[in-house]
Design brief:
The structure is a single chain. The longest helix has 13 residues. The protein has a five-stranded antiparallel sheet with strand order 1-2-3-5-4. The chain is built from one helix and five strands, in the order E-E-E-H-E-E. It is α+β, with helices and mostly antiparallel strands. The chain has one domain. A hairpin with a 2-residue loop joins strand 4 and strand 5.
């Protein structure tokens, strides 16, 4: 079983690492929408979005 590591946590978001996956839990689902759009427009490779179930965004570790 993979350990759960709290990467960062504050009043708006918590980011957890579970194995090779980062889980971003956001208090406002609109923030995840912005992040997904920004990752799609980035001119460089970005981590794969594995799944999204608001308020959680799961991305692959790089």
């Amino acid at each position: 079983m993979d350990d759960v590591e709290v990467v960062v946590a504050h009043s708006q978001r918590a980011t957890l690492r579970v194995g090779e996956v980062f889980l971003k839990v956001d208090s406002d689902p609109a923030h995840a929408d912005v992040e997904v759009r920004a990752m799609a427009m980035a001119p460089m490779p970005t981590p794969a979005i594995l799944w999204r179930e608001p308020p959680v965004l799961a991305i692959a570790a790089v």
